[in-house]
């Protein structure tokens, strides 16, 4: 290639030395790699950990010595000098090829940018976004209006037909229950998926895609950086955390973008403990929307637990906090087509994932009820439910909640629509379900990304902790005779 | 936040979607496809539009966000150039050939270990200077680079103009100005790619001497 950058003299000498070694045999170990020897030399000079560990010990020593001699002739670290040379070269090219006759064009974006990252205006903006986007649109419209309509339609038009047809076609009541009646695949599984979860997720993803494409979210990261420092995370971790508000499973994958292992661990843990995913959000908002006091308490508690848990692990986990480093994309008016495609793709993904699971859940419940295992499990959980101050009808919901938080939340929704829960009870069950692990898929992802041991440790903390918080909450509410 | 792991695979399952009937059998593993024809890779810093371009070239939808770090894994797709099947690989964003985070390592390791007929370095026209630093590293590595200066629409709105000829001369590699989101310059990139792949025969393992 015609282009070569000249680095400072000592660096060039070192590169030449490494290239000589390269020709005399080092290169053979890397023969399947497609980089030039100059590129390898530069990476080795910067101690690329990946390549370094593939070198035999004596070569590492040779290299170590070479780096030391080179460094001694330089005022600044080698990597910095190399980066500087490249940067200077790139800037020079830019100056020769790019013209900006009218820099004032950038101003309006700049102004909005400042408003979103300055805490004084940024927090009110955040509150507005949460109020209109999440509370009004997802909570009231999606989880309220839409769910009501689809539910009414289901219960009025579909369920009776399904029950009737099943009773005609299948003579055995036991088998009828698999498809129809209270826990049937169609009357419960498919109803939960389409009538409760789907509208909530659709409105949520729509709002989320809009925010995402506008470029607001990275600015939120920037604003929350200081807050996040306190819990051992950098502003960069806002990305997976905010993504977790959409889907914790995906967010667990995105923790890969974090620099240190420690940060990845903290983020994964907080995601599984205190970040409700789209489905939970919506259903919980729907549950508590009529009781603002309960909603505010729920939000306060979850935020509190999030911060406290983060603060405590930061304190006790060895290692130091990561540096903040984020790419700020420009603020853009979202393109409607992109937003709709994205919402659609995500909804489709979510629905196809959730539907079989809900159907399976119905089938498993059916088997469990038929064999009596289910009753046995529920009778085991009932004392826990009662201990939390919840009616015993919530015991099955807690059981489902172990498998998938949104399934459990949808069950609660059902109970609430029947007017069977008080404000306190709604709050307690909402809190406990939020703290539970969201779903088996996320557990799998934690195992994949963090390993079995870490995953088990997290789970064995999270479940008892969730129940303990519910217990203490109930106790506190009773003690002060608070009825929400 | 791109949850549909289907598209993280090889793009072949996109149209035919069946329910997964196993209750908890979430499977995020990717199936590598055998690269039969030449391979090209899209690389660049985060949030420069690699995934949009990937979609434009292959028709495979990958969730695209105005948000750095949305692609954390390699996505493979296919396109046809001059009646030749070419596999296209979308990579997570990287700032430099020396990786800091795990996702950057994914991209770097790919570049090191797989043979490519062409490597499209996608950059954001609005931040040309900062992004060229990576181009420089790719050229140092003697990789078959094509520079795609993306987001020209936004750059124009900012009143920026870019001298393509001068860039070609300075870098010594093909340069395409484009706005993948508006489908500007995508055809030109295809032509450039076709030329490049025609001039280099099927990629062979580089001999190291």
Spell out the blueprint of helices and strands.
The complex is a heterodimer of chains A (about 475) and B (about 210).
Chain A: H1 9-23, H2 37-45, H3 49-52, H4 57-72, H5 78-97, E1 98-99, H6 107-117, H7 119-169, H8 173-179, H9 185-214, H10 216-229, H11 238-244, H12 248-254, H13 261-274, H14 278-288, H15 292-316, H16 336-371, H17 373-387, H18 394-403, H19 405-417, H20 423-435, H21 440-450, H22 452-479
Chain B: E1 39-43, H1 50-58, E2 75-81, E3 84-90, H2 102-113, E4 118-124, H3 128-140, E5 145-150, H4 152-157, E6 161-162, H5 164-171, E7 175-177, H6 186-199
Parallel strand pairs in B: 1-3, 1-4, 4-5, 5-7
Antiparallel strand pairs in B: 2-3
Detailed description of the structure:
The complex is a heterodimer of chains A (484) and B (209). With 484 residues, chain A is an all-alpha fold. Chain A folds into two domains: 9-96, Helix Hairpins; 123-479, no CATH class. Chain A is 76% helix and 0% strand. The longest helix of chain A is centred in the N-terminal third of the chain and has 51 residues, at 119-169. The radius of gyration of chain A is 28 Å and the shape is elongated. Chain B has 209 residues and is α/β, with parallel strands linked by helices. Chain B has a single domain (5-10, 25-199), classed as Rossmann fold (3-Layer(aba) Sandwich), CATH 3.40.50.300. Helices cover 30% and strands 18% of the residues of chain B. Chain B contains six helices and seven strands, in the order E-H-E-E-H-E-H-E-H-E-H-E-H. Chain B has helices at residues 50-58, 102-113, 128-140, 152-157, 164-171, 186-199; strands at 39-43, 75-81, 84-90, 118-124, 145-150, 161-162, 175-177. Chain B has a six-stranded mixed sheet with strand order 2-3-1-4-5-7, sandwiched between helices. Chain B is globular. The N and C termini of chain B lie far apart (44 Å). At the A-B interface, helix 2, helix 5, strand 1, helix 9 and helix 12 of A face helix 2, helix 3, strand 6 and helix 5 of B. Strand 1 (98-99) of chain A pairs antiparallel with strand 6 of chain B.
């Amino acid at each position: 290639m015609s282009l070569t950058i000249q680095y400072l003299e000592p660096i060039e000498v070192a590169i030449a030395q490494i290239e000589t070694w390269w020709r005399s045999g080092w290169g053979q170990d890397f023969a399947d790699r497609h980089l030039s020897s100059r590129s390898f030399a530069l990476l080795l000079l910067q101690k690329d950990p990946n390549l370094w560990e593939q070198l035999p010990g004596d070569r590492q020593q040779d290299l170590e010595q070479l780096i030391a001699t080179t460094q001694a002739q330089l005022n600044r670290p080698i990597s910095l000098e190399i980066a500087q040379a490249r940067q200077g070269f790139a800037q020079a090219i830019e100056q020769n090829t790019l013209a900006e006759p009218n820099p004032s064009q950038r101003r309006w974006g700049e102004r909005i940018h400042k408003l979103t990252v300055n805490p004084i205006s940024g927090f009110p903006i955040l509150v507005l976004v949460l109020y209109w986007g999440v509370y009004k649109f997802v909570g009231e419209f999606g989880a309220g209006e839409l769910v009501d309509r689809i539910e009414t339609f289901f219960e009025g038009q579909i369920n009776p037909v399904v029950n009737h047809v099943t009773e005609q076609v299948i003579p055995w009541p036991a088998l009828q229950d698999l498809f129809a009646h209270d826990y049937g695949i169609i009357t419960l599984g498919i109803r939960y998926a389409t009538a409760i979860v789907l509208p909530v997720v659709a409105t949520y993803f729509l709002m989320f895609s809009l925010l995402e494409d506008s470029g607001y979210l990275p600015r939120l990261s920037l604003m929350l950086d200081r807050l996040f420092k306190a819990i051992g995370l950098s502003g960069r971790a806002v990305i997976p955390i905010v993504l977790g508000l959409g889907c914790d499973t995906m967010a667990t994958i995105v923790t890969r973008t974090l620099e240190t292992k420690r940060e990845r661990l903290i983020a994964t843990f907080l995601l599984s403990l205190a970040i409700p995913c789209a489905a939970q959000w919506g259903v919980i908002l729907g549950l508590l929307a009529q009781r603002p006091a309960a909603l505010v308490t729920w939000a306060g508690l979850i935020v509190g637990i999030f911060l406290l848990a983060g603060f405590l692990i930061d304190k006790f986990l060895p290692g130091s906090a990561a540096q903040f480093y984020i790419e700020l994309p420009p603020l853009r008016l979202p393109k409607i087509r992109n937003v709709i495609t994205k919402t659609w793709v995500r909804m489709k993904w979510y629905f196809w994932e959730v539907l079989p699971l809900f159907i399976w859940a119905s089938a498993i419940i059916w088997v469990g009820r038929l064999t009596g295992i289910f009753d046995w499990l529920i009778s085991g959980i009932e004392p826990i439910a009662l201990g939390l101050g919840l009616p015993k009808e919530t015991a099955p919901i807690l059981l489902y909640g172990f498998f998938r938080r949104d399934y459990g939340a949808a069950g609660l929704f059902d109970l609430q629509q029947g007017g069977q829960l008080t404000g306190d009870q709604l709050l307690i069950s909402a809190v406990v379900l939020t703290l539970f692990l969201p779903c088996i898929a996320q557990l799998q992802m934690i195992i994949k990304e963090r390993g079995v041991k870490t995953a088990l440790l997290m789970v064995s903390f999270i479940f008892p902790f969730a129940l303990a918080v519910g217990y203490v909450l109930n106790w506190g509410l009773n003690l002060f005779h608070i009825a929400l | 936040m791109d949850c549909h792991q289907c598209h993280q695979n090889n793009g072949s399952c996109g149209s035919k979607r069946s329910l997964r009937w196993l209750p908890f059998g979430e499977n995020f593993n990717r199936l590598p496809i055998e690269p039969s024809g030449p391979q090209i890779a899209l690389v660049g810093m985060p949030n420069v539009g690699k995934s949009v371009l990937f979609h434009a070239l292959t028709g495979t939808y990958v969730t695209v966000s105005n948000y750095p770090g949305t692609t954390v894994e390699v996505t493979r797709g296919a396109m046809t150039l001059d009646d030749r099947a070419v596999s296209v690989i979308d990579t997570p964003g990287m700032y430099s050939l020396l990786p800091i985070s795990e996702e950057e390592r994914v991209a770097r390791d790919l570049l090191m270990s797989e043979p490519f007929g062409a490597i499209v370095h996608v950059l954001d026209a609005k931040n040309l200077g900062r992004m060229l630093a990576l181009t420089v590293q790719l050229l140092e590595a003697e990789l078959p680079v094509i520079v795609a200066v993306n987001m020209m629409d936004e750059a124009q709105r900012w009143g920026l103009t870019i001298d393509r000829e001068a860039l070609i001369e300075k870098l010594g590699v093909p340069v395409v100005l484009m706005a993948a989101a508006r489908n500007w310059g995508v055809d030109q990139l295809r032509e450039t790619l076709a030329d490049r792949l025609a001039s280099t025969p099927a990629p062979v393992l580089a001999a190291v001497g």
